[in-house]
């Protein structure tokens, strides 16, 4: 297992370097001068010497490649500098908002897993007409954009029923609607994965043998099919978690949830390059860590794969 993890980490180094280069290049080559925008926002008439001093302070007076190498050497040590807009440490800015985003994405993932298991199991166990209806319903949920789903939920639960509030204070109750918005589409997409995996396993000989022995559908599902499909499902859940982190930006801005979505939208509007670069790097790292954990779970859940790795 240790060798597997080390090989997985080694093969990820080129990917992480490429991710860091893209994150730096997208921001560095974007139009707009953050120094000029910040001086104008402060009501200061830009003087050439002031502009030059600030660009030197933030390292914006150097060529692209030296800037990237210098930034990469600091990023490896998780030193992303200071925010151009606030003057505070970039890590402190992210630390303030990251827990809220992780809470939202984690809650949405739990909801998506529950929805997917329910939809996938119902689609398999239902008759042809009901199964087709459930599959059509999942396609509908997947097709609805997250911002439109958010507006539908606001109309239903805030404006019509009055069960929730649009602008909250970051409490757990205010997390329900944003998490539900993200989990509906993700759960429907995962539900199709569950449906396809379960349907494929039901045609296997070991399931037919269990049916011939007189076992009920629920014991067959839990005792025979579930252990065989848990590995692919964990991988799909890990990938979904990364997608939920990215999709949380729009949902957080709609519901006013105090996560990274608020921070990154403000950073984009103010051309706060250090914050944007750190945000892209952290999203990539979180996605990589979740994928690595999913691979480890797959190995632990598959005895044959575990024996093969140990044999190597």
Structure description:
This protein has helices at about 1-30, 35-40, 50-55, 65-75, 90-125, 130-145, 145-160, 175-200, 205-210, 215-255, 260-270, 275-300, 305-310. The chain is mainly α and about 300 residues long. The chain folds into two domains: about 1-75, no CATH class; about 95-310, Orthogonal Bundle (MetI-like fold). It is flat and about 85 Å long.
Report Rg. Answer: 24 Å
Average residue pLDDT = 77
β-strand percent reads under 5%
Strand tally is: 0
How far from one another are the termini? 10 Å
User: Main β-sheet: number of strands, strand sense, barrel status?
Assistant: none
Name given to the CATH architecture of the largest domain = Orthogonal Bundle
Spans of at least 5 consecutive residues with low confidence: none
Question: Any key phrases for this structure?
Answer:
312 residues; mainly alpha; MetI-like fold; 13 helices; 79% helix
Short description:
The chain is mainly α. The chain is 79% helix and 0% strand.
